[in-house]
Amino acid sequence: MGLKVKEISTGFIACLSLGLISQAIGNFFPQVGASLFAILLGIICGNTILNQSHLSKGVRFSESRLLEISIALTGLTLNMKDVLAVGWQGLGFIILQMIGTVVLAYHLGSWLGFSKKFSLLMSAGNAVCGSSAIGTISPVVEADDKDKGISITIVNLTGTILMVALPLVTGYLYQHQVIPTSAMIGGVLQSVGQVIASAKLVNEDVTQYATIFKIIRIIFLVVVAIVFSKFNTREGEPLLRRSRKQEQVKRVGIPRFILAFFACCLAVTLNLIPDELSSIAKKTSNQFEIIALAGIGMRVKFRDLIKEGPKAMLYGGSIGIGQVLLAIILIFVLFRS
């Protein structure tokens, strides 16, 4: 046990340090947030001063285990009763928006020549909750570290651009009416932080409802993980057709941290968790996620970004535009007065 702690300590300290620096920078640029800075610093340092083999075990621990713990703790901040606040139209909007995003992202990725696994990571990251969704789906579809790192980087970059752009779009289309504006921001942006930062550029009412729309998406993370576990990720074979051998392999089930996430969410919904604990869980989850994102950035190599980056950015940007257009259509259909 002592040897294992020693093996991971140096890499963990490196990720922790980058996470703390990212938070300090993020305080000066709240519209961008610490998450994106953590990824970018991780990429830069992981390819230069921290590109050392003895850090690898600690970095892997930080980017995998801490992200899993962060996702599980997120469940302590969610109440499924919040779904009722936006009515059946709001619930229908989120379900259709998520399905449309998954279908769009997967087929667009296939058209651009990306692998099934990378396309599924991009689908989940954009449809649900960014880094957390990709961290959840990655083991389910057995994606490699390169695809995981690049997809998280692209999703965060796309989300940052949309975070600033969406208040301009909703101001033009809806004159910042609360429900359609909240649906657009909460239904499109990838992370909770991006949703809150973007909505605060409008007003407090939009911030409240946009967060609820976002919470509904996060609650569906469990469903997305279950559905994605049924997909055939072998290249050249139909996505929805699986062999008996593959079925046996996939029966390992949903990762334990997802079950913990859902159990925590149920506990909050049943009022078994005090508000103080939920507040602590939220802060701890955010801290762990930033450290994990620094680790994920450290595992992304410049050679991979040079090879996949430009096309991946085109991919991420196209998904973002598609999400906005889909949201405009759904808001028009579902929220007409």
Automatic annotation (TrEMBL):
Bilayer topology term: Multi-pass membrane protein
InterPro entries: UPF0324_pro
Record carries keyword Isomerase: no
Chief location: membrane
GO CC annotations on file: plasma membrane
Keyword annotations: Cell membrane, Membrane, Transmembrane, Transmembrane helix
Localization per record: Cell membrane
Annotated protein name in UniProt: Sulfate exporter family transporter
Species of origin: Vagococcus intermedius
